[in-house]
């Protein structure tokens, strides 16, 4: 029986790994779920396991937070110990499966490759061509070392070809995050969060911001807060706040400005279903998250992306996303376009059909 080590660490990993674990159940395979503990808060981690029916991790490494070097160093040593320990007991892994672009993804790939364990990377080939983003470094290292590159959108195929990866190692399989979204959306919409917030479907804006370029300076975060407060008069704002952003709002003294605007709802980070109930019924989404660009495209909801570039260009060329940079003026103009009905419509990309994980399991079993 083939044995796969499936690695998760941070919030965006959980919804990607859930359908892969489920798809493996249809095959003669053993999965060992390893949670690095990069995210450890209940509402950034445990709640996703409960709601998405993910099994309890077989191994929990508890690495926690730190600078990039500190966190990556802890990840590398803990993962190496786990891989070596399994091999010493005669239960070593045939392959490591990693998803996405977080520090845990890169560290698992590096540790496994040096131990000669092959690695499959799910969501391979995405490139923002912006090396100031830690995730871009993680993508380049992970793809450089993985021997099976499972791609979610056509740009991934082009990028990997340009980097010289042999065709045999690369396969377009679709988007596992959308597998989870399609499975959960009907359940999510039955939740009571909208009623609790007293917002009507199709009338409000969901905001998420956590990238350093938007939240780490008082100037950029302050300008975004100003726009949100200004539009909140006729477009209620629902803003679940990532811990990193919460810390910045506090230290820049911006909390009061948000709290005093009657139309702004500040929330703790939400679980998967509550968040999907919000996004799937929103008028518009404002975000710097990679995953949410894809989810809004699948949901056909306008997405104003607060980034200069994106590693997910299909969400702009085919989907509902528009890049607004960190420019509060561009954000404002696009919000107006949404409100006056002149914003573009989009279509759902090829193979974002709810069956990506099934294709991945078939591919992994055949190698
Ligand atoms: C990480 C990912 C990012 C992803 C995001 C989703 C990397 C490089 N970044 O960013 O790609 O979009 O997750 O959330 O892997 N913290 C808590 N509780 C936790 C975890 C973190 O309070 O459970 C706080 C800590 O102060 C920590 C900070 O958040 O220092 C940053 O956490 P970290 O894992 O380094 O990166 P994220 O910003 O969460």
Which CATH architecture of the largest domain is right?
3-Layer(aba) Sandwich
Task: Tell me which ligands are bound.
Answer: uridine-diphosphate-N-acetylglucosamine
Shape: globular
The number of distinct helices, counting runs of at least 4 residues, comes to: 17
Compressed to H and E, one letter per element, the order equals EHEHEHEHEHEHEHHEHHEHHEHEHEHEHH
Q: What portion of residues belong to β-strands?
A: 15-25%
How far apart the termini lie comes to 13 Å
Unreliable runs: none
- Walk across the major sheet and give the strand order: 3-2-1-4-5-6-7
Helix content: 40-55%
CATH topology of the largest domain: Rossmann fold
How many strands?
13
- By CATH reckoning, the class of the largest domain would read Alpha Beta
Name of the CATH superfamily of the largest domain: Glycogen Phosphorylase B
* Rounded mean pLDDT score: 97
Structural class, from secondary structure content? alpha/beta
The oligomeric state of the chains shown is single chain
Radius of gyration: 20 Å
> Major sheet: size, sense and barrel closure?
7 strands, parallel
Number of domains in the coordinates? 2
Describe the structure.
The longest helix is centred in the first third of the chain and has 21 residues, at 68-88. This protein has a 7-stranded parallel sheet, with helices on both faces. It has 2 domains: 2-174 and 352-365, Rossmann fold; 185-340, Glycogen Phosphorylase B (Rossmann fold), CATH 3.40.50.2000. Helix content is 47%, strand content 15%. Helix 15 (314-317) links the parallel strand 12 and strand 13. The protein contains 17 helices and 13 strands. With 367 residues, it is α/β, with parallel strands linked by helices. Helix 10 (218-231) runs parallel beside helix 16. Uridine-diphosphate-N-acetylglucosamine binds at residues 10-12, 38-41, 44, 65, 101-103, 134-135, 210, 242-244.
